[in-house]
Design goal:
With 276 residues, the protein is mainly α. The chain folds into three domains: 82 residues, Helix-hairpin-Helix base-excision DNA repair enzymes (C-terminal) (Endonuclease Iii, domain 2, Orthogonal Bundle); 102 residues, Hypothetical protein, domain 2 (Endonuclease III, domain 1, Orthogonal Bundle); 55 residues. It is built from 15 helices and five strands. It has a three-stranded antiparallel beta sheet. A two-stranded antiparallel sheet has the order 1-2. The longest helix has 17 residues.
């Protein structure tokens, strides 16, 4: 039996949904990866793991997430942290502006919701720096709500298993994915799809291209920004501008620092750089 989605062009056979769910979840029960944030339903812990895992391999995130949760266990502690201390916990993950955005979000959660995230997609999306994917992930992994979670890898799995066209729109794919979520098992289902891609149905096997390509890290502006923050949070409270230019002689240090200054990460005083 084929089912046509109203106002959509994709034809999908939903007659074998039960079998698909059973096969994926049975595979997951024997092969699931150990990721520490899967042992909690705390929305704060999941929020932190989601932001840390953006463009970063989860294996690399584990020790930093563990250390973070031991020292910054909730939105209250995150909201009150000094910028220097905050960046010292984040600097080895790069993308340091994300830590500042997390803190901005935490401060509003404390101020408006007494340190607890609201149980509503619409209210979550009103918080600063919580984008749709993060909101859906929190709802699914923390509260087990049947919200669709589609990252690049889950997209590949769904397209491959359902024999969908690679150019399918996100809205169409989301409508289809919503029909696949087992009742009361949104958390397990989306974790299973992620592991199924990571351990079995890899990008090489599916040959399905990613929608976006991460830029090379080495010799990038990102490397320079990360190096600066590492230095400033590892004992050197201040850096001479000249020393940064000597470390990266082929980079436009003035432009990089200007961007970091605008984001509120650093400040420049008389040819010296320090945490803002």
């Amino acid at each position: 039996m084929y089912v046509f989605l109203s106002s959509f062009s994709v034809k999908v056979d939903f007659s074998w949904v039960d079998l698909l769910q059973k096969n994926i979840l049975t595979w997951y029960s024997s092969h699931k990866r150990f990721l520490p944030w899967r042992d909690t339903c705390d929305p704060y812990a999941i929020h932190i793991s989601e932001v840390m895992s953006q463009q970063t391999q989860v294996e690399r995130v584990i020790p930093y997430w563990t250390r973070w949760m031991q020292n910054i266990p909730d939105y209250w502690s995150l909201a009150s942290l000094s910028k220097l201390e905050l960046l010292s916990y984040w600097s080895w993950l790069w993308f340091n502006s994300r830590a500042l955005r997390l803190q901005e979000c935490a401060q509003l959660v404390v101020e408006k919701y007494n340190g607890e995230l609201p149980w509503s997609i619409d209210l979550l999306l009103e918080l600063p720096w919580i984008w749709p994917y993060t909101a859906w992930a929190i709802c699914s992994f923390a509260w087990n709500l049947p919200e669709v979670v589609i990252d690049t890898n889950i997209r590949r799995v769904l397209i491959f298993l359902l024999k969908l066209p690679e150019d399918i729109s996100y809205d169409e794919l989301s409508m289809i994915a919503k029909r696949l979520i087992p009742e009361w098992r949104s958390r397990d289902w989306h974790n299973a799809l992620m592991d199924y891609w990571a351990m079995y149905l890899t990008a090489r096997k599916t040959r399905i291209k990613s929608l976006g390509k991460q830029s090379k890290f080495e010799w990038s502006d990102r490397e320079v920004r990360g190096w600066i923050v590492k230095q400033l949070t590892s004992g050197n409270n201040i850096l001479e501008l000249k020393s940064i230019q000597e470390q990266f002689p082929h980079k436009n240090i003035d432009k990089i620092l200007e961007g970091m200054e605008k984001e509120g990460i650093v400040m420049i005083v008389h040819n010296y750089v320090k945490i803002a």
